[in-house]
């Protein structure tokens, strides 16, 4: 069966295999030494199954894709407020290595351009540059599910030629954004950019974000869903530099590219994608990588804003097992919109029953907003002289009033029996 998906992937990759436009990044001599023909893609499902096509086993340096993960680590370690005090979240519309800060805040505009990424490195609390790099290295490795290696040649090459990044780091220091020694921070930044990954590593790192921060392969929770939400938000608006608008329109996934030729793309809750092709366009994004992602999105329907249908109805069935007793059976994942639908339906039909039984036994997941709305319902029912019961064998409505009222049942039959003997 996996063959079916494999064929899709091979076919979509083959559509772009012959394209040879773009150029290798050569601002670091070492980066120009890779095979320009390399072209691979990996796709990880949200439960960690990986499909690969082409050069999925070839290692290349992660480069700017690292920025998304170091930003996540900074958020994880010191929290959003402290990170926001140093790095903005506005798209810059500038090249990745622009020597610039926001005119009014004097902070880097976002963490996906070099200025913001260098600042993010400095926010990882550590006693030394080595310790800081170790934390970053561990974090990326935990997301990938294997220990990543450092490309020492690329690191040294980048360090030897990094005047522009040095300009940025010293500028940040002068604006009070960097507290630490700029050269030490840069050293860590160069090392993080020089970690080697394959497209499969990237797909797994993406899947870790798609899963809200837990690695589907290892099962390890790497960070929180709040950190992931913020990271993906910034990837949407700033991940592809000044091509972010084109990317969101055509591909529609939070993503990050690097001059090593890699792109990581995330479809929240669903999958992670890693692609590699080192020939870059003038914005520094992989030419074939962008095209491949575009085709994947179009042909597999992956655009995160595609509205293919109304979100699945929360109500599975409504029936009356006894005169005056009505059962509302819900299912799926209940969030605000689903709960709103339930509350409004019950409200509209209230004149037709004396007892309402809300059956949540088939609900997979419920969030606080939905729980709050549904538990508020029992109060309103009582005020109208009605009785509300909840069938909740799994206890997903725990802490609600329904529970403290003692009107929680394990089965609909139990609830109906209670209603008839009132
Ligand atoms: N290491 C590179 C730099 O700082 C990363 C750039 C990139 O991938 N866009 O210039």
Automatic annotation (TrEMBL):
One of its GO terms (biological process) is L-glutamine catabolic process. It catalyses: L-glutamine + H2O = L-glutamate + NH4(+). Substrate binds at residues 64, 114, 158, 165, 189, 241, 259. SUPFAM superfamilies: beta-lactamase/transpeptidase-like, SpoIIaa-like. PROSITE patterns: STAS. Keywords: Acetylation, Hydrolase. Its EC number is 3.5.1.2. One of its GO terms (molecular function) is glutaminase activity. It comes from the Bacteria. Belongs to the glutaminase family. NCBIfam families: Gln_ase (TIGR03814). Homotetramer. This is Glutaminase. The lineage of its organism: Bacteria, Bacillati, Actinomycetota, Actinomycetes, Mycobacteriales.
């Amino acid at each position: 069966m996996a063959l079916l998906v494999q064929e899709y992937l091979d076919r979509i990759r083959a559509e772009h295999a012959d394209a040879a436009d773009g150029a290798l990044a050569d601002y670091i001599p070492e980066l120009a030494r890779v095979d320009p023909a390399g072209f691979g893609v990996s796709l990880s499902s949200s439960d960690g199954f990986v499909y690969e096509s082409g050069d999925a086993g070839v290692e290349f340096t992660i480069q700017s894709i690292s920025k998304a993960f170091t930003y996540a680590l900074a958020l994880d370690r010191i929290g959003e407020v402290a990170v926001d005090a140093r790095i903005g979240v506005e798209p810059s519309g500038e090249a990745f290595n622009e020597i610039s800060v926001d005119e009014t805040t004097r902070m880097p505009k976002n963490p996906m351009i070099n200025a913001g990424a260098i600042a993010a490195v400095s926010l990882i609390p550590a006693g030394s540059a080595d310790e800081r790099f170790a934390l970053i290295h561990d974090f990326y490795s935990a997301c990938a599910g294997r220990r990543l290696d450092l490309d020492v040649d690329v690191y040294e090459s980048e360090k030897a030629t990094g005047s522009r990044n040095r300009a940025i780091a010293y500028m940040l220091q002068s604006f009070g954004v960097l507290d630490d020694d700029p050269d030490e921070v840069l050293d860590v930044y160069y090392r993080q950019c020089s970690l080697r990954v394959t497209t499969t590593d990237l797909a797994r790192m993406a899947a870790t974000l798609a899963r809200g921060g837990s690695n589907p392969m290892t099962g390890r929770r790497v960070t929180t869903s709040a950190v992931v939400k913020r990271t993906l938000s910034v990837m949407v608006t700033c991940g592809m530099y000044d091509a972010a608008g084109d990317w969101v329109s055509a591909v529609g996934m939070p993503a990050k590219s690097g001059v090593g030729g890699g792109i990581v793309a995330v479809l929240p809750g669903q999958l992670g994608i890693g692609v590699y092709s080192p020939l870059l366009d003038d914005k520094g994004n992989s030419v074939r990588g962008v095209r491949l992602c575009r085709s994947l999105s179009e042909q597999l329907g992956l655009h995160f804003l595609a509205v293919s249908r109304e979100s699945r109805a929360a109500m599975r069935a409504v029936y009356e097992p006894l005169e005056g007793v009505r059962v509302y059976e819900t299912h799926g994942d209940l969030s605000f919109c689903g709960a709103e639908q339930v509350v409004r339906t019950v409200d509209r039909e209230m004149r037709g029953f004396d007892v309402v039984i809300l059956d949540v036994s088939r609900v997979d997941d419920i969030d606080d907003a939905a729980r709050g709305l549904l538990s508020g319902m029992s109060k309103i029912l009582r005020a109208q002289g009605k009785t509300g019961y909840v069938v909740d064998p799994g206890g997903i409505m725990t802490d609600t009033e329904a529970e403290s009222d003692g009107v929680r049942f394990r089965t609909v039959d139990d609830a109906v029996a209670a209603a008839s003997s009132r």
